[in-house]
Each structure stands twice: as structure tokens, then as C-alpha cells.
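Attaching the record inline, Q. Sequence:
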Amino acid sequence: MNDELKKKLEELKNINKVKNKNEERENNILLKECLEALHNDGFILDNEEELSVYNDFKEMLIFTPWGIDWGERRKIKDIKHIKFESQLKEICSKDNYYIIWGKGLPIIRCSLNSIINNLDDIKAVEADTWLFSTDYNEIIEFHHEGRITCGQIIF
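Structure, as predicted:
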């Protein structure tokens, strides 16, 4: 196969990948309900910004198969385990966060107030949910076992 055909095939694969990703998102009822609940306060990142934020998120933290490695003190400080979601307003110092689920789901930029008001819809989208401050300083993990952990990211 010549280089031109290889290039065209690669372009078609990428177009198909984006199309499949968009179809999956459109068919995800829980995601649709979450976006409706957030109204105009939740902004889905475009593909380029989404990839950038997701890569930074994965590079700045250390992950285990079950979530963030909170024992890794070189990456996170001031770790707090909270029992009630209502404590988020007291603990969080930032106004805007990225809502991050697993790969394949969109990343949404949203205000903390809107997140707190719609947390059940947000957490319903996927078992593990993370809030990553837009200045990359804070991380909050809603673990699939019900734990809520917050921390300051060390640069």
C-alpha cells in the first residue's frame, strides 16, 4: 500500500473513531440527563481541549487500577476524606472544575455550585467521578465504593 493510501486510511479511521465516540455519547441516557440537569452551566470541552485536560490529569496524578493513589505524597498534599457531599463547599477553594469520568466520556467545565446542586446526576454517569480544578490545583475523587477524597496537587 502506498503512502497516500495509508494516509487516507488513517484519516478514515480517525473520522470513524470520532463518529463512534459521538454516537456513544448521544446514546448515553445518564450523560444526557446530567447535561440537562446542568443546563447552561456545564460546558463540554471541544476535542482538542478535552484531550489536553485529560492528558494533564493523567500525568499530574498517579493512578492505581481502583482510582487515584492517595498515598503518593509527592503528587498530593492536604488530603481530606469527607463523609458528606455537603462538606464540599467548606473544603473546596476553587469556583470552577472539570468533571472527568472515564475515557470516552466528555469532560465538562462547570461551577462548583452547579456541581453541588446536581451531584447525583453527575455521579450517576459513571462509578468513578473526579473534579479537577480548572487551575489544576485541586482534585476530588468520588470513588465507586462511596468514598470522597480531596487534595491539593503538588506541581
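The radius of gyration is 17 Å. The chain has a mean pLDDT of 88.

More tomorrow.
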